[in-house]
Design goal:
The chain is mainly beta and 70 residues long. The strands form 2 sheets. Strands 1-5-4 form a 3-stranded mixed β-sheet, with no helix packed on it. A two-stranded antiparallel ribbon has the order 2-3.
């Protein structure tokens, strides 16, 4: 008997957002129905990126984006 190879981890989506997209939440407005989960707001303004705890999608602030008042 041979050991089964470990399954590859699924690749998570990376979504670039601009200042005009704030506040960032997941699932986003363009998410398909099959990927729905409770809405969570993500803070990308302090670290430049955030990962959704439900689906693992990473939201990243676009390079050069200027954030005002967030």
């Amino acid at each position: 008997m041979t050991a089964a190879a470990p399954a590859a981890a699924p690749a998570h989506e990376t979504i670039e957002v601009g200042a005009e997209d704030l506040p960032v939440y997941c699932p986003g407005p363009k998410a398909p129905l099959w990927s729905m989960h409770p809405r969570v707001f993500l803070d990308v303004t302090h670290t430049g990126s955030a990962r959704c705890a439900y689906c693992g999608a990473e939201y990243r602030l676009k390079p050069g984006a200027v954030v005002h008042g967030h």
